[in-house]
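4.2 Preliminary Data

To establish feasibility before requesting continued support, the project team ran the inverse folding procedure on a target of 278 residues. The structure was first converted into the token representation described in Section 3, and no sequence information of any kind was made available to the design step. The complete token record follows.
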């Protein structure tokens, strides 16, 4: 628990640089008037300004939006987080609850937000060590020995990642294909492929590299990516809610391998009815 003095100094008194909104007065967003200074901002520009306190130009915003469009907007209901959105629709809960649950599930260990933040931390850390004169192969070997994984490399089910060519095409179009961290991401992949590891880059690493080249830090990257899957989640929710209730990927009881404590056997409705008649 915080000390009493810390609590007392903040009682009815919140020191903030985030902004303020009082009825009948201008809305302050960080240090700008939302209605005057920021009224022409694109929504993602406002979001990134809120996260970082820095301004991003149109080309940077096109990159950040493109990352979401290309890499994280799959309307595939079998994906782990989209499945939750679809389940929310099939049980007729609200869109807010369903999407919030799906976003929370996006903080997975193998997929989603945890690899996102680990990838950018790894790239930034590796580049800093290279600037100090360390050897790339030695850094990769140490990463594998310590964590048994290289964040952003390798992919479950298949080795390659279909998103990388599309994302690199966008990066080339915008002039971001040769950034320091992008070059590093490909150098790491080459080292892994030339060695005995045979690990291809996945989208998390390229996303992290492009973002790091914009000066975005690891925690800022994580916050920027929180909503990235929603364009794929919402179609899954909408479609599931339009089908008969409870029909999204049902499983028969006989399809479940239950190994817990034995309970009474399930009987059909007709059997129960006949038992009652007797």
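Position-by-position output of the design step:
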């Amino acid at each position: 628990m915080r000390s009493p003095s810390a609590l007392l100094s903040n009682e009815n008194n919140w020191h903030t640089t985030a902004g303020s909104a009082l009825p009948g007065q201008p809305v302050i967003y960080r240090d700008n008037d939302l209605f005057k200074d920021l009224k022409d901002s694109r929504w993602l520009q406002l979001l990134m300004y809120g996260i970082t306190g820095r301004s991003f130009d149109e080309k940077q915003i096109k990159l950040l939006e493109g990352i979401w469009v290309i890499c994280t907007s799959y309307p595939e209901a079998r994906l782990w987080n989209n499945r939750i959105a679809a389940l929310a629709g099939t049980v007729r809960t609200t869109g807010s609850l369903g999407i919030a649950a799906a976003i929370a599930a996006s903080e997975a260990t193998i997929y989603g937000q945890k690899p996102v933040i680990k990838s950018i931390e790894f790239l930034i850390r590796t580049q800093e060590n290279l600037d100090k004169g360390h050897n790339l192969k030695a850094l990769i070997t140490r990463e594998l020995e310590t964590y048994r994984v290289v964040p952003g490399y390798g992919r479950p089910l298949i080795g390659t990642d279909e998103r990388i060519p599309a994302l690199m095409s966008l990066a080339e179009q915008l002039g971001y294909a040769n950034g320091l961290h992008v070059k590093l991401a490909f150098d790491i992949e080459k080292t892994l492929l030339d060695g005995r590891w045979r690990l291809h880059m996945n989208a998390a690493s390229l996303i992290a590299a492009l973002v790091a080249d914009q000066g975005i830090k690891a925690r800022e990257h994580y916050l920027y990516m929180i909503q990235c899957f929603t364009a794929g989640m919402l179609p899954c929710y909408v479609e599931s809610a339009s089908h008969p209730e409870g029909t999204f990927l049902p499983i028969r009881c006989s399809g479940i391998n239950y190994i817990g404590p034995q309970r009474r056997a399930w009987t059909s409705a007709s059997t129960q009815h006949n038992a009652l008649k007797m």
